[in-house]
Amino acid sequence: MKRISIYILLAAFVVSCGSSDKGELVGVKAKSKWNAEKPYGMTLIPGGSFTMGKQDEDMAGALNTPSRTVTVKPFYMDETEISNSEYKEFVYWVRDSIVRSRLAEEADFMNAGLELEDPGRKLAGYEYKDIDTTDASPYVKYMLEMYGSLGNVNSPSMGRALNWDEDLVWNPEDFPDESYVYVMDSLYISMSNSFDGRRLIDTEQLEYRYYWLDIENAAKDKGNRHNYIKEEVLQVYPDTTVWVKDYNYSYNDPMHQDYFYHQAYQDYPVVGVSWGQANAFCNWRTQKKNNYLRGKKNVTRAPDYRLASEAEWEYAARGGLDFGNYPWGGPYTTSDRGCFLANFKPTRGDYAVDGALYTVEVQSYNANDYGLYNMAGNVSEWTNSVYGESTYYLSSTMNPNVTDKENKRKVIRGGSWKDVAYFLEVSSRDFEYADSARSYIGFRTVHDYLGTNIK
Length: 455
Fold this sequence. Notes:
lipoprotein, Gliding motility lipoprotein GldK, SUMF_sf, Glid_motil-assoc_lipo_GldK, CTDL_fold
């Protein structure tokens, strides 16, 4: 009897599978055709091989940047450096999420024991969103019973959803009740630290928390996955004091006060951002995209936004010109009409001869042949690679990148508004410590291209 049942099962399998594929191996078919989507504000870098490193008679530079042929895969890269306006969206999201979390927690405390319809409820509209389980699926009911939510169990609220539908009130005269005043008051600097009748937001409270998996070490050690989940908590507001601290006996206070704050500089590159803050921005940008895709019922996860490797950065900066000194080729920093081709320090003490004393808008000068702006000058850019005199010798020739959690020196590329022309060369490399923020260092992000069929 048991043998007959097995035969029936096998027959059913043959009938069900053979109806469309005729018993042939056809592979698992996706429900929809995959089409690569070009991220907004990015350009496709086609990938390929190139000669990386110094190729001239710069003997000192060639000691740690020897020329060699390497290959990188295709990827997307931001056309411009991340601007103040773009980074400010990140800061505002962190600020608003903190305020909404505090309002929701205060609402829980104030309304404990009250019915939803009670007119005495405080902070109505700012409570955590409740999940309607009336017609919930078995999955939803199970998750709520086992984990208490459907969201991120690593979050401070255990994934309870914040209410983003209710607008936040920022004008003190319009605060709805004392509970709201109490929460908002906690976000600002103390009265004793205020001056000129102004109370400013305490930027040290603007912290972003995220988790990431140390895939490289996890793959090598084959250990428990839990041991390789890392938590990061970083203050996200740029260090605006870099305009003062970077330069002794120099009057740069207007830049300190207004560069990140004032709308006049919204299209200028963000500075005063550490390597860690740049990575936090990448994580937030990834989460923002994936949250959108989940809202569209799209099960496909977008590749992570990240910092470019040193090799990717140099390949993109060259713009397809393999042996050029600069993104535009070279060897000169001016056009045939005598116009400067980048924002840097052409001569000693003369910062403004190229048209700007400090930074310029991110979409200034001419783009290189890949459509990338300011790959030389304006601000130096963080990369994902660590700096070492021997990293060129250690790294692979396929997608080369040396990472070391213990090495705090991170490669910066491209030169800046305060640098001489040497640092603008596509093969020149420099470094800064990961926890440092400077008035001349910014960043741009990259995004993996899935597949290799570029049309």
